From TrEMBL:
Record Pfam families: DUF1643 (PF07799)
Protein name (database record): DUF1643 domain-containing protein
InterPro entries the record matches: DUF1643
Amino acid sequence: MEFWSAEQLRKEFDVIASFYQIEVGSILYQCRSHAVIFRKGYNNQGFPDAIVCMANPGGARPEDSSYQLPIIQNHFDKVAYVMSKDDSTIRQLQRLMQKMNWNVISIINLSDLISDNMEDFQVKLKQVEQYSFKKHSIFDDTRLLEREALLDCNSNYTKIILAWGKDSSINQLACVAIGILSKKEKHLFGLKYSSQKWDYAHPFPRKKQRCIEWLKKMSLQLS
């Protein structure tokens, strides 16, 4: 299987995303509510080929380092989209797009909290949970309209891929998401880790050979 390099992928795809900050307990948290990967020239395609749901946005950042993230508390769907940097996970999803001959992927997360690693995410998640703050998740009831707008795209061909990993900190968020997504009239895809109902393999398991295995298994399931 051809494993496209970062340089090759950047010539083929662009990424846009909606970034914001939210204040919880006098602390500002950087967040990303939604991201879209699209093949260059296909940014006007009316619906995504797939919606991928992962744990959190990882190290996502705006391409323009001087961009000031707006501070908001509501109306997350009104945040402007800007060009976004890619990362290892984004590039792995772009490889899947190449394999499937897709043009557009929509990315949502169990939590909007941006963290470079899972340990940092666990800390931030505990901090916001101390204030019973749940709006960092698009699966919170207060974000119903925003969520429905992203999920109810007018295409029976759009696939929903679950790929949020198996860290125990996301157990509750994942179960809520599965309960909501399973009610959609779309088949759910994803590579299971175990017999537990909530854990699904992350697209980028770091080692190249394991990344290739994920691509092979995922593309086979989707075909």
